[in-house]
Amino acid sequence: MFGRKKKQPEEEYRSPFPKCVRLDSKPHSFCGGCGHPEVLKAFGFAVDELGLQPRVVFGVDIGCSLLSWNFFNLNSVETHHGRTVPVMAGLRRANPEAIAVAYVGDGGAYAIGAGHLLNSAIRNDNILTVVVNNGLYAMTGGQESPTTHPGWKVTTAPYGADEYYIRAPEIIRNVNPTAFVARGITSRQPELRTLMREALQHVVDGRGFAFLEVLSQCPLNWKTMGDPKETFRRLEQDHAKLFPTGRY
């Protein structure tokens, strides 16, 4: 109907990865131009490539991240705001065979969830935490967050945000020298997929805490809807300058 293609039978799927278990997904519900789908795309590819679908438990926070709670054909759980990291740490302890993934925004990780994040890193919990950093609180209207750039004009700082912001990967590296710590960006998809795969492999190998922050665009709250050139200039030049990408 309406030109929709018939879903292919499972046996017709041809993956280039021998260990792959097919990971089905569906159209996303994020705003046009949002970076979350790019982060989730990288995550989906990494799970497929490593053949982890039966073992992954995907935990999501309140905020834009909650729109991904049923995006994949994975076991998933939605937590109270800021509590995704301890919930996934507890799940991993209760079921050591599970690959526990906490998917949160900068509010759930660096504001209300900051204490949980740091303590999980210090304990070296064997989980992966993925934080999407778009420099503000997106779902609630674009308020100042712990990653808002000094001087950025947001709804709660119309004359410009204050000088305080957090660089979380650098902090995680200091409290846990053995953790996998990296920062990627949505506009460099091949690099992001590699980092996501390495972070998951770190957990699969039982090596402890893995932390991946991903710089993301938010055209709606950045007021750049309809101007992709400005959106990605702001992402690649402004955002990536304040928060350098790479492995830590």
From TrEMBL:
Cytoplasm as a keyword of this entry, yes or no, is: no
Q: Does the keyword Oxidoreductase apply?
A: yes
Q: Which UniProt keywords apply?
A: Oxidoreductase
Cross-referenced SUPFAM superfamilies: Thiamin diphosphate-binding fold (THDP-binding) (SSF52518)
Q: In this protein, which residues make up the domain named Thiamine pyrophosphate enzyme TPP-binding?
A: 70-214
Q: Report the GO molecular function annotations.
A: oxidoreductase activity, acting on the aldehyde or oxo group of donors, iron-sulfur protein as acceptor; thiamine pyrophosphate binding
**InterPro entries linked:** 2-oxoacid:Fd_oxidoreductase, THDP-binding, TPP_enzyme_TPP-bd
Pfam families tied to this protein: TPP_enzyme_C (PF02775)
Question: Which GO biological process entries does UniProt record here?
Answer: cellular respiration
Q: Which PANTHER family match?
A: 2-OXOGLUTARATE OXIDOREDUCTASE SUBUNIT KORB-RELATED, SUBUNIT OF PYRUVATE:FLAVODOXIN OXIDOREDUCTASE
Protein name per its UniProtKB record: 2-oxoglutarate synthase
